[in-house]
Amino acid sequence: MRRKLRKALEVPFPERWRALLAERTWWWPTLGEGERARLEDLIRLFLAGKSFEGTRGFEPTEEMRVLIAAQACLLILDHDFGLYDDVTSIIVSPSAVPHRGPRRLDGGIESDEGTMLAGQAMLHGPVLITWDSASNQARHPERGHNVVFHEFAHKLDMRNGAPDGVPPLSAELKERWEPTLRSILGELREGTAAGLDSYGATNPAELLAVATEAFFDTPDALQRDQPVLYALLEAFYRQDPAGRRAR
Ligand SMILES: [Zn+2]
Q1: The pTM is what?
Q2: What percent of the chain has a predicted confidence (pLDDT) above 90?
Q3: Rounded to the nearest whole angstrom, what is the distance from the C-alpha of residue 95 to the centroid of ligand 1?
């Protein structure tokens, strides 16, 4: 596997992937030269090291694989690729998947067919992404929803067990983390927290996932409405997407 990953970096990053990312994400053009080179490495490692599978005979296209990999890797831009060791595979479904069960789930939309699932991250298992949601959301970042950012934030959270909104953190960050999340969760439940989707009120794990979506998709609004949370995520992800956009 190590050899496979090393070999992946020997192949130049295809120009058509750069064009695709420039066209389909708002943030690709904001990256500095070093950041872009680093992300190109991560994307190639991701595509070589993780398997992509489709549901029921569906075959994920190159466009799907590259866009999902790029968004997943943006989260770990300044971290080690090993953070995704636990991501075994990515299952791509062309559209939302019916789900039965009492729990409210990611992208859960009540319909006549039951609950529809837009994505799911499984502990020590694969990540499910539904392409119509992912594709739409990448086109409309201003809405602040992104199933790829959401599910991969859960995966980072799961690095120390079941998702609880507290991934492995430095002692300094941990001290700020829990009080901040607790206070925002309270505000969300009272309906007074601006800049975040109300789904974050479900529990601390969903709050982290929803906050991650906002951090990478609507960073200016999050920084304005939730400056303490923004600073916390900036320290965690070691990135400043709002500052990057302003440059
Ligand atoms: Zn979730």
Answers
A1: 0.93
A2: 79
A3: 17
Distance 10 CA to ligand 1 centre (A): 36
Distance 220 CA to ligand 1 centre (A): 22
CA 152–ligand 1 middle distance (angstroms): 9
pLDDT tens digit sequence for 24-48: 999 999 999 999 999 999 999 999 9
Pull the structure tokens for residue 28: 């690709």
Q: What is the CATH number of the domain that holds 230?
A: 3.40.390.10
CB-based neighbours (< 5 A) of ligand 1, an ion = 106, 206, 209
What mean pLDDT comes out for the span 142-165? 95
Split into its structural domains, the chain has a count of 1
d(CA 75, CA 26): 15
Look up residue 200 and give its amino acid.
G
DSSP state at residue 160: G
Place of tokens 């006549």: 112
Phi-psi region of 101 (alpha: psi -120 to 50; beta: other; left: phi over 0): left
Strand partners, 110: 115
* Ligand 1 centroid – CA 74 distance (Å): 18
Query: Residue 19 is part of which domain span?
Result: 2-246
Q: Which long-range contacts (CB under 8 A, 24 or more apart) does 144-147 make?
A: 144/197, 144/213, 144/214, 144/217, 144/218, 144/221, 145/197, 145/213, 145/217, 146/71, 146/213, 146/216, 146/217, 147/106, 147/107, 147/118, 147/119
